[in-house]
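quick one, 265 residues, struct below
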Amino acid sequence: MLLKIPEYLFWIFFWNTFTDAAKYPVVLWHGMGDTCCFPFSLGSITNLLKTKLNNTYVKSLEIGGNIVTDYESGFFIHPNKQVEYVCQELAKDKKLTGGYNAIGFSQGGQFLRAVAQRCPKPAMKVLISLGGQHQGVFGLPKCPSLKLHTCEYIRRLLNYAAYEEWTQQFSVQATYWHDPFQEDKYEAHSTFLADINNEVFSNGLYADNLKKLDKFVMVKFLNDTIVQPLESQWFQFYKANQDREILPLESSKVYTTILTYMHEK
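---
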């Protein structure tokens, strides 16, 4: 998701959230329809962080090693492959061996959470998710893309075939498409989100690794026009078999399997 945040708001939020903000490097992961380095989005945020943090090392993740593949990754490279690639890139970056802070933009938020859960080394200290869809989406009304027909095709595909095997492999958005009318299908066939949310089986390592974060901050954009429901950005979702009423976080399955630690720390 292309993202523009007023500089002063971003900086105030960043400084008051991160642990030892100037001490640790920063890793960024862009959203759908964006890249690591567009000068009007993450490129400007990268420069802002470097300037404000006395030239602290900032790594804006470029999936695949070039700008074209990086852009396409937001739509067509399976998140599991992306997370594996990122884990390898972070592990071999010597500037990150002492730990790092992370900011995920839109779907980059849940992708970085997967990194924290699956790859605890190097250590992620703080994770800020800006508009991340941690309980998935059931709608993409204004999907951002350089080509409008791409979004229309993705919307139709998700509405009719999100849980088909080929769709899960072909469409990034299908891997976190969460249909409240088909919870059984979602849990059985989601090849990414259901796994990192411990809805397939309970993976104790995911919860344990998430506990290692100093802070996990989830920011909800009240005027977000791209994803539905907005509450997914705060780890909430619709009650089963309808798409109007939101289930309280504490009543959700994902809370009991992976998020209970928030009250234990």
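The beta strands are 26-29, 58-60, 100-105, 124-130, 215-219, 237-238, 246-247.
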